[in-house]
Every structure is written in C-alpha cells, then in structure tokens.
Design goal:
This protein is an all-alpha fold and about 170 residues long. The protein contains 4 helices and no strands.
Length: about 170
C-alpha cells in the first residue's frame, strides 16, 4: 500500500539507526557467548568468568534496546493502524525501496545469522555443562558409593532449564 510505504519511509532513519544498535548489541553478546564457549572448552576459569560477566552486562544493556524496540514498534503500529506485534521487519521491508530496503535486508540477514549462531553456541555450551556435570556426578557417586541424584531443580522446585540466549524479536 502506497500510504504505508510513505509512513514507513518517514521512520526509515530511526529504524535503520535502531537496527545498527541492535546489530552492535547482538554482536557483543555473540562475542561474549563465543568467549564462554572457548573458555569452557579450554577449561580456562579466568576467561570463563570474564566472558560470563561480559555476557551478563550485554544482556542487561540489551533490555534497554528491547524497550526502545517496543516503543518504535508502538509508534509504527499507530501510524500504520496495526497491532504492535504485527509490526515486523518482514512486513516493513516490502514497504521500502532502494538503499533503505537494501540496508534493512542486509541488517536483518546479519541479525538472523548472529542470532542463529548465538543459539547454536549456547546449545553447545549447555551440552558442555551437561557433560561436565555428568562426569562430576559420576565421580561423586563413586567416591560416596551412592546412586545418582537425578536432575537439577530451581529454588522453586521446577526442573532447571537451559539458557539459550537472546533471539531476534522483530519477527518474520
């Protein structure tokens, strides 16, 4: 729709600037997750602590970006007469053209690639942790001559889950 394309064009600079910030933030998170992976693989406690601290800082600062993303989505939704959850890059990109469209496509593609790598590394990290816990549990069981203690649980009694990192929340 032509009216929607004009509306999106009015937000293009802000949208591109926000996506640059999202790209930088996710890049920093990915670098920290890579650091965690290498540190765990190499059994480097100091590097692991440093990488986990960096990941925690980046995740905390990404919450500010998430808030800004939501505000931008709300404003676009109002201008486009859509529900905020319907304002996705998949819906906005076709309403653009030229350099804006190319930039949005390139940034979205990069964000999806970094997000997929982050998820993959976090799954590998979870597997490394699981293996380490299984080895430690086996050693403790042999030393104490007791049977396995089973799964891990949170303080609330729920089965402990695995952290898999941030995902791109703009949708398809």
């Amino acid at each position: 729709d032509r009216v929607d394309a004009v509306t999106v064009a009015q937000f293009a600079d802000e949208l591109l600037a926000h996506l640059r910030d999202e790209t930088a933030s996710l890049g920093a998170i990915l670098a920290a997750v890579r650091g965690v992976h290498v540190a765990m693989r190499d059994w480097n406690d100091e590097a692991l602590r440093t990488s986990l601290e960096a990941e925690a800082r980046e995740l905390e600062s990404s919450s500010v970006l998430q808030k800004r993303r939501r505000q931008l989505q709300d404003r676009l939704a109002l201008a486009l007469h859509l529900a905020p959850d319907e304002v996705t890059l998949g819906r906005l990109i076709p309403l653009t053209n030229g350099g804006v469209r190319e930039s949005l496509d390139r940034m979205w593609s990069g964000l999806k690639e970094m997000s997929a790598e982050t998820v993959q590394l976090n799954r590998q990290n979870a597997a490394l942790i699981g293996q380490s816990m299984a080895i430690a549990r086996g050693v403790v069981e042999r030393l104490a001559r007791v049977a396995g203690t089973g799964e891990s649980y949170t303080a609330g009694g729920a089965r402990a889950g695995t952290h898999v990192g941030p995902l791109i929340q703009w949708g398809a």
